[in-house]
Design goal:
Blueprint: H1 2-20, E1 23-26, E2 29-32, H2 40-52, E3 56-63, E4 71-78, H3 86-96, H4 98-101, E5 106-112
Parallel strand pairs: 4-5
Antiparallel strand pairs: 1-2, 3-4
Length: about 120
């Protein structure tokens, strides 16, 4: 049993190393995976947020539902959040995405103010 656990742990570690190095092992072959591919939903949400938060220093939108558009994770850093509590920052993002949110299952929002 212990040998099985060690083997499984080794397999999981190898998989994690592959993810960190931007590689995927398919049938024993190492292939590069493309992390720059964005879904239409990600692009649409990114465009809305760029328009609503033109001072955003950083913006990242990721479809975390496997590409089906049901759930997104948003990381946005903008000076427009200065002086606002976290809940107020999230409300601004929710308001900006009011139309898009109607078709979603869930949304994770991470906001921050740029460090000077």
């Amino acid at each position: 049993m212990l040998a099985c656990k060690r083997s499984l742990t080794g397999t999981m570690l190898s998989a994690l190393r592959g993810l960190r190095s931007n590689q995927v092992v398919v049938s024993g072959r190492v292939q590069q995976r493309c992390l720059s591919t964005h879904t239409d939903g990600e692009a649409r949400i990114r465009n809305v947020l760029k328009e609503k938060f033109p001072l955003a220093a950083s913006l990242k939108v990721v479809d975390i539902s496997g590409g089906c558009g049901a759930m997104y994770e948003i990381h946005i850093e903008s000076s427009e959040f200065k002086g606002k509590r976290t809940i107020q920052q999230h409300q601004l993002v929710n308001q900006a995405l009011k139309e898009e949110i109607q078709g979603m299952h869930g949304l994770r929002i991470f906001t921050d103010i740029p460090k000077d």
